[in-house]
Amino acid sequence: MEHYFTNNTELKSELRIIDYKCQNYSFHFNSDNGVFAKNKIDYGSKLLVETIIKNTNRQSLKILDVGSGYGFMGIVLAKVLNSEVTLIDVNKRAVHLTNMNIKENKVLAKSFISDIYENVSNKYDFIITNPPIRAGKKVVLKILLEASDYLVDEGILWFVMRKDQGLKSTLKELDIKYNYEIIEKSKGFYIIKCKKKLT
Questions:
Q1: Triad 26, 27, 31: Cα angle to 5°
Q2: 69 phi/psi in degrees, rounded to 5
């Protein structure tokens, strides 16, 4: 079983295009074997993006997309919210695809390899993630809890998780660092908005 958070250089490339429309914008995404949701836009990611857009009246944000895959979430938000987005992933092929998709969709964004926040130094208004559940709870919690170190004081962590993927216990852990609320739920997916608790 090939996981999308590993790098397999032997994996055959089979490029494909995935189309998506949001508001008046049309997007075209290059996808390939070895990345998350390679054949279609993942429902949880789509729900997260559309919920953020619906609940945000700000533009010109600085956004970090953690575990970005081929860049769907970050690229859509860059265009619709007229914002500057940084996209990171541990998967080299995902980052390569994201860089292709940034050019294809003409957005203000950059993408680079980072094992969680290893290569991140800036602070952001929003951090967004559809965390890699199959990487294990330890990795997921590291992404969510350490996000607070890379948010500006009023910054927001947005994430999507299915209820049956341990959402309840995850929220209990997040209570240490965030005031959180459930903004949307659909088909078992929950969209969570977390604001940093300021000490």
A1: 155
A2: 60, -135
Residue 26 near residue 80 (C-beta atoms within 8 A) = no
Q: Which pLDDT does position 2 carry in this prediction?
A: 44
Tell me which amino acid residue 19 is. Answer: D
Take residue 125 and report the two structure tokens written for it: 């208004």
Residue 8 has pLDDT above 80, yes or no: no
Lowest mean pLDDT among 1-15, 57-71, 155-169: 1-15
Which of 100-118 are b and which e, b meaning 16 or more Cβ less than 10 Å from the residue's Cβ? bbbebbebebebeebebbe
Per-residue tokens: 60:
């010109």
Answer whether 143's CB lies under 8 Å from 129's CB: yes
Q: Between 104 and 198, whose confidence is greater?
A: 104
pTM of structure: 0.93
Query: 149 in the Ramachandran plot: left (φ > 0), alpha (ψ -120 to 50) or beta?
Result: alpha
Domains of the chain: 42-196 (3.40.50.150)
Residue 65 pLDDT: 98
* Pick from 54, 44, 50: nearest CA to 189: 44
